[in-house]
Specification:
Layout (H helix, E strand, L loop, with lengths): L1 H24 L5 H6 L7 H8 L9 H9 L3 E3 L3 E2 L2 E3 L8 E3 H17 L5 E5 L4 H10 L15 E9 L2 E2 L3 H16 L3 E6 L4 E6 L3
Parallel strand pairs: 3-5
Antiparallel strand pairs: 1-4, 2-3, 5-6, 6-7, 6-9, 8-9
Length: 206
């Protein structure tokens, strides 16, 4: 009897460990379901612009590292003229070269327009795994493909300026003025995301 009980527990432990191992190796998203989600007409230009950089859909850390290794992705500094990058728990501070350059241009112009103030970058490049983790804590996170998944999009908070979280209508207007300037030049697309209190910016392959 004792032998049977021991065998049962050994089998149960092996099954539990094996099931957990399989779970760890499987992605936390269903790629088929992700691909089925149709972008809104407002968002579609963002995805079209993202796909023009020759970066394949970033599914995991290995995919990001590949583009870092071949020089396609460039590191975004934590601070720059006119901007600060907040602690990134669900995204990575890497972008294609035009993305990095555009962020720096937006920061420089914003600093000049506001006489030295700074805005906060709240999200940069995300993998599908990052997005999956984000959805666990934020139900508003995109279910389908995001332009963040290609390394040419970033979010700027419109409620956090000079590293201070509070509504600042004057700074918000100044920031959108800068974004509209680059939108009119054909350099970016942007959307004001009210649920996330940020501007979602996608850099075009101009």
């Amino acid at each position: 009897m004792k032998k049977c009980v021991c065998l049962f527990f050994l089998s149960f432990n092996w099954y539990t460990y094996h099931a957990q191992s399989i779970k760890k190796t499987l992605p936390c998203y269903d790629l088929g379901q992700v691909m089925k989600v149709e972008p809104t007409p407002l968002y579609k230009p963002h995805l079209d612009a993202s796909k023009s950089f020759g970066v394949k859909l970033l599914q995991d850390s290995k995919a990001v590292q590949k583009y870092i290794n071949n020089g396609k992705f460039h590191k975004i500094k934590k601070t720059g003229k006119g901007y600060r990058v907040q602690k990134l728990d669900y995204s990575r501070a890497w972008m294609v070269s035009k993305g990095k350059l555009m962020l720096e241009k937006i920061g420089t112009r914003f600093s000049k327009e506001t006489k030295g103030h700074t805005f906060t970058v709240s999200s940069i490049t995300r993998t599908l795994e990052d997005q999956c983790r984000l959805r666990r804590v934020n139900a508003n996170a995109a279910m389908g493909i995001s332009s963040h998944n290609y390394g040419n999009s970033f979010d700027i908070s419109y409620v956090r300026f000079n590293s201070t979280l509070r509504n600042n209508p004057k700074m918000e207007v100044a920031l959108e003025k800068v974004l509209k300037y680059y939108y009119d030049l054909g350099r970016i697309y942007y959307i004001k995301e009210r649920q996330q209190s940020c501007f979602h910016i996608t850099v075009r392959n101009y």
